[in-house]
Fold this protein.
Amino acid sequence: MEQEELLSNEKVEKVLSPHPLSFMRYQSLCIFLIIWGVLIGWLANFSEYKELFSGYWSVILAWSLVLLIAGIMASLTTIRWRIFFLYLGIVAGGIGLMYWQGGWLTDAKIFIPFYSVAMSIVGFLLVEWYRLSHKYIISNQRIIFKGGIITKEERTLRYDKISDVNSKQGVLGQIFGFGTIIPISLSGFGLGSDTSFAAGGVQLGEKKAKFMGIFGGGREVQTPRARSYYELHGVYPYKEVKKLVEKMVQGSVITQYQQEQVEFQKEQVDIQKQMRDLLKMQSESDKEQEPESKEKK
């Protein structure tokens, strides 16, 4: 953080970035792509089932379907359809390259494994670039969240505006000592909601009616959730950072005793002002009465 960005009497306590394993949900997509690409190459070239992949279209079809189904399942699980469209782009790009080169279609058994590995390496590099774009600055006055590859984003949160601190650790986080801390502001920033749905329909015929539908029920639940740019995502060391944030938040909270002391001091100041005004008015009144008393004499 540049010195000119600091506020008056502000001191930087920690500058953090996400742990290299904190974006494993994205890295796992690359790992799956490598595994499936190598596996389809082995099945089509060396396994006892290679006769099932005698035609190049059977290899392309099997590779594409498994990737797209995996993309749909991952998207439904994470409620992010970008994963499906990512896999769809990889499939379309591979088929497009094979058509463009012409002869690569007949060599699909060899091309697809190498293409899958190459796309995975590119994916790993993009995930790492995305991770390094995150920067979290914890000072004695506020938390600054910075991030963005193309569009730079920044969020500043003062400690006195934090109403709650949510923290979580996954399995890898517990092993390697990193975790995510979500400061929830008084306005509710840092919270998301999970909802359910219901759908149905009525089919009317000449003699009878049919009711068809899909039902889902539940309550709307507020859950701590924020983009990785707006939370302390995958920070290390987790326990130390969590303790530091909670200490800063606690230090900015005015206790009931302190609040009573502040109110008492305000009352004392108001009383002193009133007494000063009364004394001033009395003094002015005495000055006005002095000439009158002299004239009478």
About this structure: The CA atoms of residues 37 and 116 lie 5 Å apart. The helical segments are 24-45, 56-78, 82-101, 108-132, 171-176, 238-252, 256-296.
